[in-house]
Design brief:
304 residues, eight-stranded antiparallel β-sheet, 8 helices, 27% helix, globular
């Protein structure tokens, strides 16, 4: 990660290396926070944040779910995010808004802890690498299970619960794979360590529902909309492990991952072992949408 000039922190733009957090911050010890990831793309009209309002509304909802009193509205955070892009003179970047609990108490009960909000921006390329975007990622099913609705809130982006994803990611990387897939406690596929999953079988495009433990990803919703409008049959459906092996195509979606093909799962080639036509079409439509080249989806862009 290359530092940029400014980070917005609790209402002010401060130099990158002065955005400090106290070592006794509640969020550091217990993961009491919520966050988002947002991409800003270079377009002919200038830097454009993709579905910025949707991301900020989800962060407000996540904070509410975890009972964190976020002192800023979604609209206010969206305006600030664009200010951060302008202040850092970035044409394309990744935005990371976060709200977390600070000092004031260090027990499990967070009552009395201060609340801090920040938005940082930096340049970030292909999340799983350019090779994965072009040729597809190698993936394994993790031994770790996706956190369930009975234990946490998998459909909110809470900071602490992502240790579940970290464990799965580390396991996959150590074993020589690019990414992990997590099953839920019932044995159904939920999602990747930080991405939603799509499978293509006999022309039908499927993705696990939020009831399986999958995040209702904004990029996921984007891809479902783009493919459906393009004439594809797109459904939410429970996915078994065997479905992974029978799929004709598979790909990830996510703000960081964008649309990344999957060429292999558990040492078995997906389809012909290379990105298929539906995956390539999803990539094409997505990149055109985020860069303002599809008029009907330009409402998803907010310019800095």
């Amino acid at each position: 990660m290359e530092p940029t000039r400014f980070i917005w922190f609790d209402g002010d733009l401060v130099p990158w290396d002065q955005a400090h957090v106290h070592v006794l911050a509640h969020g550091l010890h217990y993961g009491t926070g919520a966050f988002e990831g947002i991409r800003v793309y270079a377009t002919k009209e200038g830097p454009a944040a993709f579905r910025l309002g949707d991301h900020m509304r989800r962060m407000v909802a996540s904070a509410k779910a975890f009972r964190i009193p976020l002192p800023w509205s979604a609209d206010e955070l969206a305006k600030v995010a664009l200010e951060v892009v302008r202040a850092n003179e970035l044409s394309a970047c990744y935005l990371r808004p976060i709200v977390f609990l600070g000092t004031g108490t260090l027990g499990i009960n967070p009552t009395g802890a201060s609340v801090h909000t920040a938005i940082a921006a930096w340049e970030w390329g292909a999340y799983l690498g350019k090779g994965a975007l072009e040729s597809g990622a190698r993936v394994r099913v993790s031994s770790w299970r996706r956190i369930g609705h009975e234990a946490l809130i998998p459909n909110a982006k809470g900071t602490g619960q992502y240790i579940n994803s970290v464990l799965a990611k580390q396991e996959a990387i150590t074993a020589g794979y690019d990414e992990a897939l997590l099953l839920n406690y019932e044995g159904y596929v939920a999602e990747g360590s930080g991405q939603n999953l799509f499978l293509v079988k006999d022309g039908r495009v499927g993705t696990p529902p939020s009831t399986a433990g999958a995040l209702e990803g904004i990029t996921r919703d984007t891809v479902m909309t783009l493919l459906a409008d393009d004439g594809h049959d797109v459904v939410e459906a429970m996915v078994t492990r065997s479905d992974l092996y029978y799929a004709d195509e598979a790909f990830f979606s996510g703000t960081a991952a964008e649309v990344t093909p999957i060429r292999e799962i558990d040492d078995r080639p997906v389809g012909e072992g290379k990105p298929g036509p539906v995956t390539r079409r999803a990539q094409e439509l997505f990149m055109k949408a985020v860069t303002g080249k599809l008029e009907q989806y330009r409402h998803w862009l907010e310019y800095a």
